[in-house]
Specification:
This protein is an alpha/beta fold and about 300 residues long. The chain has nine helices and 18 strands. α6 crosses α8 and α8 packs parallel to α9.
Length: about 300
């Protein structure tokens, strides 16, 4: 199954010739989490080779335009393409009026596929197919939530242990389902005898925020962290004033939280591609892991499972 981030846009408030407004589609074992569809997202999806049928969740962090003005086009594309599966829409409950305006921004043949899931409170969780989607509040001038996707922990079977106990074929499935099997000689083999814990994988999406408890809770030990790095450190005071992070702060979060792959995005229009090495350099002063500076229409895989 596919587990990867499709980057649709990487600009902040003002798009540039090379960076569209925000948009990120996290594909995860048949689920498609569309985070912050900014203006132009529908076209970017076409350019990236993904469709409305890939979307099962629309997740909006907050209702500033660069994070939500693509909602009308995406909603109307879901309707036009006759998406038949359920599409959930998560967003801050305080922005209900904005959601309704965006959801019904123009005349079109509507769809019943979309169900609103407004978020309020400190921690909100929804089941999302094989994973759990969690929302936590961030620190921005308007109410904002970050999101996290978690696969449940499982167990990794040990072939040598199975073979040593004569367990094969359908018995392996029984052992996984029931937690134990009884052999012909009457002895009982437990799942713990033939397997070891396998931590579930996870990804987090942190946009438009100052440093706060929610940032660290969302990023804690995730395999993939997609995080805003609107400014370089020379503009840290401006970042704090307007509720944003610097690349250095993103790196500090990644180090403190034991992140595996760090994706920097949401770049101010004052920076060009030539500035990308500076973002990596600042983040790398704190974080020694893999750092990706996101570009439109690229794909970033979720790292392979931890050993």
């Amino acid at each position: 199954m596919t587990r990867e981030l499709v980057v649709l846009g990487t600009a902040s408030a003002v798009p540039t010739r090379h960076r569209n407004h925000n948009g990120y589609l996290l594909l995860w074992d048949g689920q498609g989490f569309l985070f912050d569809p900014g203006e132009g997202t529908q076209r970017q999806m076409t350019m990236a080779g993904v469709s409305a049928h890939d979307v099962t969740w629309i997740c909006i962090t907050h209702f500033h335009g660069d994070h939500c003005l693509g909602v009308p086009g995406v909603v109307q594309r879901i309707a036009r393409d006759k998406v038949s599966h359920a599409v959930q829409a998560a967003y801050p409950a305080s922005g209900e009026t904005y959601w309704r305006r965006l959801r019904h921004a123009a005349a079109f043949a509507d769809t019943s596929a979309i169900t609103p899931r407004p978020a309020s409170g400190d921690v909100v969780q929804w089941p999302a197919g094989p994973v759990t989607l969690t929302a936590r509040p961030l620190s921005h001038p308007v109410e904002s939530y970050g999101y996290r996707v978690d696969e449940p922990d499982g167990r990794r079977m040990l072939p040598d242990e199975l073979a040593a106990r004569g367990i094969a074929g359908p018995m392996i499935g029984e052992l996984q389902r029931e937690g134990s099997v009884t052999l012909d000689d009457g002895s009982v083999v437990s799942l713990a005898d033939c397997s070891v814990p396998r931590p579930g994988q996870s990804a987090a999406f942190v946009m438009d925020t100052r440093l706060c408890d929610g940032v660290y809770a969302l990023a804690d030990r995730v395999d993939l962290l997609v995080i805003e790095s609107t400014f370089l450190s020379e503009e840290e005071a401006l970042a704090t004033e307007y509720g944003h992070l610097t690349a250095a702060q993103a790196g500090q979060v990644a180090r403190a939280c034991g992140v595996r792959r760090l994706v920097l995005t949401h770049f101010s229009e004052r920076y060009s591609f030539a500035d990308e090495p500076r973002f990596v350099e600042e983040a790398a002063k704190a974080f020694g892991g893999e750092i990706v500076t996101a570009r439109d229409l690229t794909r970033v895989p979720v790292p392979r499972r931890r050993p």
